[in-house]
Amino acid sequence: MASTTNPLYASLSAKPSLPKPNNNSSSDLFVRVQNVNAVSLRSSFVSRTTAVELIGGGNSVLSATRMGSRSMICASSAQVVDQSPSKTDSKVPTIVEVDLGSRSYPIYIGSGLLDQPELLQRHVHGKRVLVVTNNTIAPLYLDKVVDALTRGNPNVSVDSVILPDGEKYKDMDTLMKVFDKAIESRLDRRSTFVALGGGVIGDMCGYAAASFLRGVNFIQIPTTVMAQVDSSVGGKTGINHRLGKNLIGAFYQPQCVLIDTDTLNTLPDRELASGLAEVIKYGLIRDAEFFEWQEKNLKSLLARDPSALAYAIKRSCENKAEVVSLDEKESGLRATLNLGHTFGHAIETGFGYGQWLHGEAVAAGMVMAVDLSYRLGWIDDSIVKRVHQILREAKLPTAPPETMTVEMFKSVMAVDKKVADGLLRLILLKGPLGNCVFTGEYDKKALDETLHAFCKS
Amino acid sequence: MASTTNPLYASLSAKPSLPKPNNNSSSDLFVRVQNVNAVSLRSSFVSRTTAVELIGGGNSVLSATRMGSRSMICASSAQVVDQSPSKTDSKVPTIVEVDLGSRSYPIYIGSGLLDQPELLQRHVHGKRVLVVTNNTIAPLYLDKVVDALTRGNPNVSVDSVILPDGEKYKDMDTLMKVFDKAIESRLDRRSTFVALGGGVIGDMCGYAAASFLRGVNFIQIPTTVMAQVDSSVGGKTGINHRLGKNLIGAFYQPQCVLIDTDTLNTLPDRELASGLAEVIKYGLIRDAEFFEWQEKNLKSLLARDPSALAYAIKRSCENKAEVVSLDEKESGLRATLNLGHTFGHAIETGFGYGQWLHGEAVAAGMVMAVDLSYRLGWIDDSIVKRVHQILREAKLPTAPPETMTVEMFKSVMAVDKKVADGLLRLILLKGPLGNCVFTGEYDKKALDETLHAFCKS
């Protein structure tokens, strides 16, 4: 595992050529070519992603990733910093690029990034900013964000709108408060919306930005693991309808995602675990090596070891960025990111928004998807056991709430976005760990069996 | 003027080569190369648009237009039909193509198009359709549209939602009824929304389609002149906010626009005149020849002469399609389509949505923009007189309602979408007839003078 506590970075040209070995530098770097991400080798994306790792003193210190036509180097070791005291700025971020042509953007990951005004300010368009946040996050980070937006930048004026916290407020009435504030503040097309908070804030602010004056720029500053590893990346925005989750929204990409890992210091344990459900998901659907790393490092993650969290966030973002780059509008591949979500959404909708956290519902949903995959004979029971094991260790649910019925599942799943011409398509594991399929071709009796196995009625 | 009562059409390859003269055909066609649109010669778009007109018996019968990489031939004369009785299908449409790369789509214009199921059905994706219409249009055309969608096509099921008629219902509460119906009807991502009605229905249905499940296909069937010449083309969708018009929405393109000119038979006179305001706008901002044609043919338009209306619709759509193709997201050129709209929106918002029709407010707004252009010394008084003359003849207002105050104009104009970093940019006429500018660089005193000239307080 690469340590990411004290990262530094530099830009490479877009050429696919690799940096040459450099044995004369003070840190004795040498070059080792390898794949950043195990899944790249397995999948058909090998040709899109090449990577270089520069090794210093036996530890991984620099890695260069090329995705599409963009290149970057991310450095991640205390060792380099120890040897170069003039570069001990602990706040230089790791960067993961989401490659979407003209709509590409960087994800900055690191400690203390909110203390670096230039990072945010380079992505602010126009002179007016609206920060959208909630009443839990505002007292903790709003002043810091306003300072980061305005320090040394007197031309920019910042307004904010503070929404009530919670999934149950991810609705049209609450969204209208954002529009009201934007219009009252006379924001124009050159304004920038900033989402400061978890997934609910990011989704609502993003959809508001997509719709206000038919589209203004926006920036994501996610403050939960859930938002940092999943919802802030990839441009899915929207709100819930009383009959289903995220049924109203837009695909709309941010200018950048800024992940200051220090914001996790204030995150409740239950929220932390909820976010880990999505981290575990990446391992199951496409990155077995990452899943194995999680099995070994789950205690460190739960204990909030900063380098473990930073690595889990970075690797999750790399997985998500690659999938989104290949399938922005979810014509196929991207749907695989929804392992467990169809069952999970049914739990959230049927059980009431906000009763369970999203990741808790997804965890139970993943167990159900894994159960179905096993019933279909697509995976062996060792995977079933490992999924139960890691979720239990993360203190996540491994079954839906007792009040859920088969009928509740069926009625919500019928309006799932992955239904096409009446057929419900699901993400199911198939083959060795790290492989999945998105399909409507499965035995519907097996689905019934799974639902009955997890519901009393 | 080309007659368009009995059009026929054929597709050309995308090559820029012109069809060869054909003097041997039964209808004695020959080729005349000319510009479809006078503005193409004047403007910088000449290289993008070439046209061929095939003349039969002295009357214009066929014209081929190339826009970008797409080509088509539109035929428009009773004479050809008279000479080829086997082709007397009066329902073959004129086609204007909106060239937006992968999001390109055709505008079909003609009489009796709703009696041709294949036209609509080729653009329906998936098996489920939701027709969005209002309580004025539903009794007149809903059955006809449902029949056109389903005849010979038993796999398709059609639901409909009937909204109250009027601009004052173009709001979030009414939009939610569309989502409610779509979800209750279990529509999925492969569904198609169909907007059947005027501009309000088209804008709301389009925004609902853009947002439902983050985007489903939609089709525009505009039934007013206003919607046929302007709002149904170009992908601007949205709803009003109590503080301003169209402040919430999306750029979202339809699969096709189907204009059955027969639907104008049921249009009230006041609505007809309102639509003509936008027709007149195209002449003023970019098509002096079209404006001159309107001056000569206004009586025919008001008398609903079918061929005059069809020509006005076709030429308006050509103008709009060209502008939208060049500037889909309104970074500059497209804004010129809003001549008079900043003043007009202020009238609609200040005076109350639905008191005046959109085109009535735009007409008064155009007079104010022309007044300001004249005060700035940018146009001569002959243009001012001609604008007053044609609007009066169309029975459109040439001044805002008496209750409008300078302050009402200023407060609404301050939240106009064309404000950028606090500066209000306006579309103003400049130079000979058919030329305009979109600019924030004008004497603000002159704007004050215009507002005071048209308001009592």
TrEMBL record, chains A, B:
UniProt domain 3-dehydroquinate synthase N-terminal: residue ranges: 161-273
Domain of life per record: Eukaryota
Function noted in UniProt: Catalyzes the second step in the shikimate pathway.
Biased composition (Low complexity): 13-23
Major subcellular site: plastid
Enzyme Commission code(s) on record: 4.2.3.4
Pathway assigned in UniProt: Metabolic intermediate biosynthesis; chorismate biosynthesis; chorismate from D-erythrose 4-phosphate and phosphoenolpyruvate: step 2/7
Family assignment from sequence similarity: Belongs to the sugar phosphate cyclases superfamily. Dehydroquinate synthase family.
UniProt record, GO biological process: amino acid biosynthetic process; aromatic amino acid family biosynthetic process; chorismate biosynthetic process
Cellular component annotations (GO), alphabetically ordered: chloroplast
Name of the featured protein: 3-dehydroquinate synthase, chloroplastic
Subcellular location as annotated: Plastid, Chloroplast
Cofactor(s) this protein requires: NAD(+); a divalent metal cation
GO molecular function per UniProt: 3-dehydroquinate synthase activity; metal ion binding
Catalysed reaction, written as an equation: 7-phospho-2-dehydro-3-deoxy-D-arabino-heptonate = 3-dehydroquinate + phosphate
Keywords annotated in UniProt: Amino-acid biosynthesis, Aromatic amino acid biosynthesis, Lyase, Metal-binding, NAD
Pfam families named among the record's database cross-references: DHQ_synthase, DHQS_C
